[in-house]
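Re: folding output
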Amino acid sequence: MTADDVREAGRALAERALELPELARGRTVAAYVSVGSEPGTLALLDALRARGVRVLLPALLPDNDLDWGEYTGPDSLARIQHGGKMALFEPSGTRLGPDAVTAADVVLLPGLAVDAHGMRLGRGGGSYDRVLARLERAGARPRLVVLLYDTEVVARVPAEAHDKPVHAVVTPSGVRRFPGP
């Protein structure tokens, strides 16, 4: 995809996501800044902020767990190179700790694919598996929503015993809901 295609998909994705009742009601949303060819998330982050939503963004820790910081606009992001891994855009302000995500009403998750049962395939680093386990331990029950391209919604993805389904997937063309965890 060209850079223009990625930007346009990001705009369409933001429009679809903003139609979700969960995001309309949510006061705190844990999100992420897209990287590489992932559907762009900046338009969505800015639209959420414009609605008065508190947006939390992850910061990768050395053990692949995630800390969190608040997104206050594009100037609040720093490009961080993590060793041999890809560079990520992370919040440059105060770190709130790994448990900050437990205050989220909605958690927007990256992924490589989601299947017909709502199972999400991640990148394999386990960062979001840790987040989901942390939410479960805390008794937090945010809505879990994956942001993908239409072609990344597939019949089946590999799943392990600890994997849990998400509530919805948003693509540039629409929303698909699942029974959820």
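--- second protein (sequence, then structure) ---
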Amino acid sequence: MTSEQIGYRGPTACAAAGITYRQLDYWARTGLVEPSVRPAHGSGTQRLYSFRDVVVLKIVKRFLDTGVSLQNIRTAVQHLRERGFRDLERMTLMSDGATVYECTSPDEVHALLQGGQGIFGIAVGVVWRDVESALSQLHGERIDTGETLVGHNPADELARRRNRAV
């Protein structure tokens, strides 16, 4: 199965992104990071997030942890959304705490660093691989059938039994 055919429920997205369910809910309700597979429709329905959604959730978390304002993060996420989230894994997002910059080449990173101000960066490829690793051990859901896909977690006895039963 490809990552475009798998969705992740809220608790799984939270675990992979390192955020609380309260943050996830707030970000979805305010439009910061909405689930692209299936939004919630009233009480009791389950949101379903794509792999890329979870990567963006983790990026947002990293920016928050470094002190970037939610307003600037919102601008950065909007920029990524407008790009269609293409080439995320090859991108570096840089910030001076006030503005978020997209860098796609070492020259762009170097030019920002030469400005003399304090800058930090998020190599999205590293975040991408972290999320891939985390989700491989968690449960996903087939988008077309809703079938639960059990991740490979060697410590999960119940998952091992389910995999043997199939």
